[in-house]
Design brief:
The chain has 22 helices and 19 strands. By secondary structure, the protein is α/β, with parallel strands linked by helices. The protein has a 6-stranded parallel β-sheet with strand order 3-2-1-14-15-9, with helices on both faces. It has a 4-stranded antiparallel β-sheet with strand order 5-4-6-10. The chain binds ligand ME8. Ligand ME8 binds next to strand 1, helix 1, helix 8 and strand 14.
């Protein structure tokens, strides 16, 4: 049971949760659920980033203390994630003592080792983002904030600096050559983001990690309370502070998977690994490893435009509630996973796309196929799962996949060459191939492709029914064993598809399992031994003939938009 540690960014408490936060957390949740099912000892972390100076201002405007304001908004994130059934193992808040104490300790260690030093900094400051913008980037953006477009201010101050320049070459070697350097592997994905970060690291200078000024909000530089640790460094440390305990340290050693969006790539793919390399040199922290992957996805836009409060097209909590109430939580998760901006292209969150995805995949494919098969078992076999017998496989003209059909399958007559390629109708073999592809893709964070392979099993079942026509065969009583075999194969393929789809649409899959008399949900909860349930459950032939099969209501009723 190797450890698997996955994180989301910790979100600013100044904003209410919106679709962007929910997206990254859902992606992490899907991947965490998959790893738990495969038996990996999984730890999934999310939380809130609280020490930004703007929290103090926003609180003051409301007559609250910063802590009160942060408490209120952190609670909004926690409640939202609970409502959306996120399976995180911890929720870290940077205002918690467990975090602050460790950050002080790390910064002290880095001051002692010489990687953090006091210097003078002059540069272009982006007040909204609380960060300095390097000269070249500032010039490119006409000395306006690359994020908000507001004018940058020239500022000079005495700061503590992190010696990023000392780690430039090591980072470049790791990123350009890949593989292992001094026990650390480290990847930035997708490829285009890796190239972008390599170019930026080549010009990397030392970075200020404190701002001058005593504050009650934030963490003071140890030994120098006139400086406050810059909110960015404070926040990045959350990934380590949460697991730097005797019980959890092993998660870190497996190499964290940091999921983020492209807006915060620089901090995660340059500064953070360099800080970790620096910590590794400190006594007692030699175990600190680099993340195994920093994955920076792209952005959701809304109805074709950048989301903005002024345009009123923000997918906020109210809209999210509406989608969940109308279509169900699984539908939201599914849409985010299938149409989301993993990769380097932004995705459009539109109602039209949502309904289209829901109807075509969930209602017409998964929901419909489950109804179709269980209905036939109900009608022809009194709701009791029939037995599969050995049958000569019918050879039919059938849809192809990009998979090799082994010679023996063709020789056995279960497939044949046609003008459209190799056609086959061996549901067992197709299911097992698609299962391999789906899990391989999920391991590589290719969510929508993984789901597509899983959903292809369901499409295969539909195609298999269309071609074998059990509803016609059943009219001839001597064909009943054949009909039973066809339906057994269908339900078995659907069972395996449901295991693959569970991380995406857990509620529907659990409802399906319940109707089929399968106690997978309970087994998963009780899996303290971290057994690989996934490989056990995705093996063909587990359904016991004689099992009562319940039909039940449609898992995903087709959505008809109200007429206006
Ligand atoms: O940056 N599309 O917090 P934040 C997709 N506190 N994802 C989006 C998105 C969109 N339109 N908008 C936001 C911070 N996100 C820091 C992070 S981590 C040590 C500190 C998601 O509240 C995405 O994951 O601004 C992005 O990286 C994150 O929210 C930014 O959240």
């Amino acid at each position: 049971m190797p450890p698997y540690y996955i994180t989301t960014p910790i979100y600013y408490v100044n904003d209410q949760p919106h679709i962007g936060h929910i997206y990254t957390t859902t992606v992490a949740d899907i991947i965490a659920r998959y790893h738990r099912m495969t038996g990996d000892d999984t730890f999934f972390l999310t939380g809130t980033d609280e020490h930004a100076a703007k929290v103090v201002d926003a609180a003051a405007e409301r007559g609250l203390t910063a802590q009160e304001w942060a408490d209120e908004n952190a609670a909004a994130f926690e409640t939202t994630f609970a409502k959306l059934d996120m399976s995180h193992d911890d929720f870290i808040r940077t205002s918690q003592d467990r975090h602050k104490r460790k950050v002080e300790q790390y910064v002290r260690m880095l001051i002692d080792s010489g990687d953090v030093y006091l210097g003078e900094y002059e540069g272009w400051y982006d007040a909204g983002e609380e960060e300095y913008v390097p000269e070249k980037r500032a010039a490119e953006h006409e000395y306006k904030s690359p994020i908000s477009g507001r004018a940058l201010v020239r500022r000079s101050e005495k700061n503590y600096f992190f010696r990023l320049s000392a780690y430039r070459n090591e980072l470049l070697t790791l990123l350009e050559q890949g593989g292992e350097v001094d026990g650390c592997t480290f990847k930035v994905e997708p490829q285009a983001r890796r190239n972008e970060i390599i170019a930026r690291i080549k010009e990397a200078e030392d970075v200020p990690i404190s701002r001058k000024g005593r504050t009650d909000w934030g963490i003071a530089v140890p030994g120098d309370p006139d400086h406050t640790i810059y909110v960015w460094i404070d926040a990045l440390f959350n990934y380590l502070t949460t697991v730097d305990t005797d019980e959890r340290r092993h998660y870190w050693q497996g190499g964290a998977v940091h999921l983020i969006a492209k807006d915060i790539l620089w901090f995660h793919a340059a500064i953070w690994p360099a800080v970790l390399l620096a910590l590794r040199k400190c006594a007692g922290y030699e175990w600190v490893n680099l993340p195994r992957v920093v994955y920076a996805h792209s952005f959701w836009i809304s109805e074709g435009q950048k989301m903005s409060k002024s345009l009123g097209n923000f997918i906020d909590l109210e809209k999210i509630d509406h989608y969940v109430e109308t279509f169900g939580l699984d539908a939201l998760r599914y849409f985010l996973a299938v149409r989301g901006p993993m990769g380097t292209t932004d995705s459009d969150f539109s109602e039209h796309a949502f309904i289209e995805t829901y109807n075509s995949d969930l209602a017409n494919t998964f929901g419909n196929c489950v109804s179709r098969v269980t209905k036939m078992i109900g009608k022809y076999f009194d709701g009791v799962l029939p037995r599969a017998v050995d049958l000569p496989w019918p050879v039919v003209k059938y849809k192809t996949y990009e998979i090799d059909v082994p010679d023996e399958i063709i020789a056995s007559g279960q497939a044949e060459h046609t003008s459209e390629g190799v056609m086959e109708l061996n549901l067992q073999r197709l299911t097992s191939d698609l299962r391999e592809t789906s899990s391989e893709r999920l391991l590589h964070l290719q969510l929508s492709d993984a789901q597509e392979s899983a959903m292809s099993i369901v499409r295969e079942v539909d195609g298999y029914i269309d071609k074998t026509q059990p509803f016609k065969l059943v009219k001839d009583e001597t064909k009943l064993p054949e009909v039973g075999t066809i339906l057994y194969n269908c339900i078995e393929a659907l069972r395996i598809a449901s295991v693959l789809l569970w991380p995406f649409i857990p509620n529907a899959c659990e409802a399906f399992w319940q109707r089929m008399g399968l106690d997978y949900a309970a087994q998963m909860r009780a899996n303290d031994e971290h057994d690989n349930k996934f490989s056990e459950w995705t093996r063909w032939g587990q359904f016991k003939p004689g099992t009562p099969i319940e039909k039940g209501a449609s898992l995903f009723p087709r959505y008809q938009p109200p007429k206006t």
